[in-house]
Design brief:
CATH class of the largest domain: Alpha Beta
CATH architecture of the largest domain: 3-Layer(aba) Sandwich
CATH topology of the largest domain: Rossmann fold
Number of domains: 2
Shape: elongated
Strand content: 15-25%
Oligomer: single chain
Largest sheet: 7 strands, mixed
Radius of gyration: 29 Å
C-alpha cells in the first residue's frame, strides 16, 4: 500500500482506498507501515507564511514531524514531490485578515531550498533552476517548472531527465526520491512513476518479525547511539526553531526602518501598544490621524509617515491640524485634556540610516512651536530596544513621549 501525505486531501478523493492511504500533514501514519510514502508539496494552500519576509511557511512544525519520521524510517521508499511555480503568500496583516505580499517560488528559490533543507530533508548544496520542461515516464508526458542543479557534490543520483534539454527532473539518495515533475496532477502520472522507478524489480523476501530481536555484532550499541543522536538533533532543532522565530520577530520590528504604508503603521502601532499598554484595535480610523492613544494624564495624537524624501514641514502641519481639530471638539464639549502630537516618520527610507540627512532645524522649530514631537523610526527603535533590555520602564517611555518636544533624541 502507498501512503500519500498532502496538505490538500481533496486532490486525492478519487484515488482507490485499497491502494492508497491519504494522510494529512498533521496526521501521518508510520512511514514504515507502507512500502512507499509520497510527500506532496505541490499544494497552493501550503505556501503561506504570516511572517514579514518570505523565508518560511506556517506549517514548519508539520515539516519537523515529517523530518523526524524520515530519519527514523528504515525501509519505506519516500518520494518528495516539489511544488510547481506556486506563489508564496506572506506578511499577514491581522487588521485586514489578508496577506499583504506574495512571491513566486522561482523568485524565492534560495529561501525555498533553505527551508526544505532545514525543516524537511537535508539537501546539502542542491539548487534548482526555473525552466519549464517535460519528461516522458512510460506513456505519460509530465510537465515540470524546475530542474535540479549541482547534484555532483551532494551524493544524489539523477533518475529522470527532461525530453529535449536533458535537465535533471528527479534525483535520489538511498531510499529518498526528489522530483520536480508534476506527478500529483493525475493518478496515471504517479502510477507510471512508481512502477518504473520505485517498485523493486527483484524483491527480496521480507524478513520475519522475529528477526528484529536478532542482534548481531554491535547492533545494540549502534541502535543506542542512533537514538541518542536523534534526541540531540530534536533538541537542537527545537532550539533553532525558537531562535528563528525570535529573529523573524526582530526583523519584523526592524522593518520600520525601510517600510511605509500599512506595513509601517502596523509595526509602529504594535510597538506603541506594548510600551504604552494600549490596544490600538479599539481605534476607529475616520481618515484623520493615524492613531489616538488615551492615557490617564495625556492623549497622544499621531501621524505615521514612510517617505523616500527628507522630512518636510507639511507633515508637521498636518499633525497640528489633527491636534487642533481634536482640541476644538473638546472645547465644544467643555473637556479639558492634555493632548500631545507625535509625528513618527521613516524618512529617506531607501537609504541606510547612517546616510540619511538629519531632520532640518526648520522642522524641529516648527514642531517645538506646536508643542509636538518628531520621532524618527530609528529613535523609536532605540527606545523600544532600551525598554526590551530593561534599561527603561513603560512609565519612562510614556514620559519621554509626553515631555519632549521638537525632535526626539535617544542615545
Amino acid at each position: 500500500m502507498i501512503q500519500i501525505i498532502t496538505y490538500d486531501i481533496s486532490k486525492y478523493e478519487s484515488y482507490s482506498v485499497d491502494k492508497y492511504k491519504i494522510s494529512a500533514f498533521r496526521e501521518i501514519q508510520a512511514l514504515d507501515d507502507f512500502e512507499i510514502c509520497i510527500i506532496d508539496l505541490a499544494s497552493k494552500d501550503l505556501w503561506h507564511y504570516n511572517g514579514i519576509n518570505p523565508t518560511n511557511i506556517n506549517s514548519v512544525n508539520d515539516f519537523l514531524t515529517l523530518k523526524e519520521a524520515i530519519i527514523n524510517s528504515k525501509k519505506s521508499k519516500i518520494l518528495i514531490i516539489f511544488p510547481q511555480n506556486e506563489k508564496l503568500y506572506y506578511n499577514f496583516y491581522d487588521g485586514q485578515a489578508k496577506y499583504l505580499s506574495s512571491k513566486q517560488i522561482k523568485d524565492n528559490k534560495d529561501n525555498t531550498i533553505n527551508l526544505l533543507s532545514k525543516w524537511l530533508y537535508e539537501l546539502e548544496y542542491l539548487n534548482i533552476s526555473y525552466e519549464k520542461t517535460n519528461t516522458t515516464v512510460n506513456d505519460s508526458i509530465i510537465n515540470a517548472d524546475f530542474n535540479f542543479l549541482n547534484i555532483d557534490t551532494t551524493g544524489f543520483e539523477p533518475i529522470t531527465y527532461s525530453n529535449n534539454s536533458g535537465k535533471i527532473t528527479t534525483i535520489k539518495k538511498e531510499r529518498v526520491y526528489l522530483t520536480t515533475l508534476d506527478l500529483s496532477n493525475e493518478e496515471k502520472n504517479i502510477i507510471n512513476f512508481i512502477d518504473i522507478y520505485l517498485k523493486d524489480k527483484a524483491k527480496k523476501g521480507k524478513a520475519p518479525k522475529w528477526m528484529d530481536n536478532i542482534k548481531f555484532f554491535n547492533d545494540e550499541e549502534l541502535d543506542i547511539k542512533k537514538k541518542e543522536n536523534i534526541s540531540k538533533i530534536k533538541i537542537i532543532e527545537n532550539d533553532n526553531e525558537q531562535i528563528d522565530r525570535q529573529l523573524e520577530k526582530n526583523a519584523e520590528i526592524k522593518s520600520i526602518l525601510y517600510t511605509n504604508g500599512d506595513e509601517l503603521v502596523r509595526v509602529v502601532l504594535d510597538i506603541l501598544d506594548e510600551i504604552l499598554e494600549y490596544n490600538s484595535s479599539t481605534f476607529v480610523d475616520e481618515g484623520k490621524e493615524d492613531f489616538l492613544i488615551k492615557k490617564e494624564d495625556v492623549t497622544f495624537i499621531g501621524e505615521i509617515k514612510g517617505v523616500s524624501s527628507a522630512a518636510e514641514n507639511k507633515y508637521i502641519s498636518q499633525l497640528d491640524v489633527h491636534v487642533q481639530s481634536y482640541l476644538d471638539e473638546n472645547q465644544k464639549e467643555g473637556i479639558e485634556e492634555n493632548v500631545k502630537g507625535l509625528l513618527i516618520i521613516n524618512h529617506q527610507r531607501n537609504k541606510p540610516v547612517e546616510e540619511r540627512q538629519k531632520v532640518h532645524e526648520h522642522q524641529i522649530k516648527l514642531a517645538t512651536r506646536n508643542g509636538s514631537l518628531i520621532i524618527e523610526t530609528s529613535s523609536l527603535l532605540k527606545m523600544y530596544e532600551k525598554y526590551k533590555l530593561g534599561n527603561i520602564t513603560k512609565e519612562e517611555c510614556k514620559n519621554i513621549l509626553k515631555t519632549n518636544i521638537g525632535l526626539l533624541e535617544i542615545i
